[in-house]
Structure prediction request, 298 residues.
Amino acid sequence: MNDILITKSLHKSYKKLNALKGLSISVKQGQIYGLLGPNGSGKTTTLGILLGVIKADGGSFSWFGKGQRDENRSNIGALLETPNFYPYLNAIDNLKIVAAIKSLDNTSQRIEKVLKRVDLWKRKDATFKTYSLGMKQRLAIASAILADPDVLVLDEPTNGLDPQGIAEIRSLILDIAAEGKTIIIASHILDEIEKMCTHVAILKDGELIREATLDEIMIQDKVLCIGSDNIEELKLTIEEIPELKFLKDLAPNILVSVDGEISNAMVNKMLAEKGVYLNTLMLHKKNLESTFLEIINK
Ligand SMILES: Nc1ncnc2c1ncn2[C@@H]1O[C@H](COP(=O)(O)OP(=O)(O)OP(=O)(O)O)[C@@H](O)[C@H]1O
Prediction:
């Protein structure tokens, strides 16, 4: 598969704060690549550098194997902030301005195509200020794909949307990816990454903790939901067993991670040998949240 993006040891400091401490990632054609991390982990800084809005202090990156010159970005559509269009203009007129700024040809056909793509064609004549937040976000995606770029970069694309708006954006992104586009999404919403991405990079404090396919991340360990009559005693006992790692409370039980090779009976035995008897032991649905907590807690 062709390389779309390679970053090598990107560094960025804001005065004394090291926002990025040597980030190296690679994105290949066709991937839906999630940059996942808690608030402040450096996702927006990374995207800003890659899109030429922020200057890195060190390291390098290359788009399409052609280096980091500004021209290489003409093939990238981006949505970095809350959409900002002219409130008193309708969707078509707003997109005409975008087309003029980008010097695009066949403006009318392009605009019709992208507005249909994001399901706003029926509302094409309404002014931007009358749009719901979800519609504004869809118009922003229409704008980002107006030049028909091969790559789409999205920062927190569902921020602030209600569940229906989130579902619409998610399905739109998946449809766009199905056309063969490469998509890079920054998000702190695990569920979003889990439902959309094929690959994920987990960031913490400006460092890459893990980069893998979503499947690899999900099958690494198993997560058990366990409980006993005395949950505090159970938590203390877990600290004495290196094979078990506490993940989080799931009242009245707790979630722990354990190497996939260790059977549930073995877990029960290890705890019983330390005088703790479980009243609950079941496999918890493996999801990215457990893995994410596990990885960033290390
Ligand atoms: N312009 C700036 N000046 C000073 N510090 C900044 C600036 N921009 C970001 N930071 C700091 O750099 C760190 C990384 O921020 P960044 O916005 O890249 O993280 P993020 O993962 O995108 O977080 P969020 O999800 O909250 O947007 C944070 O500690 C943030 O406070």
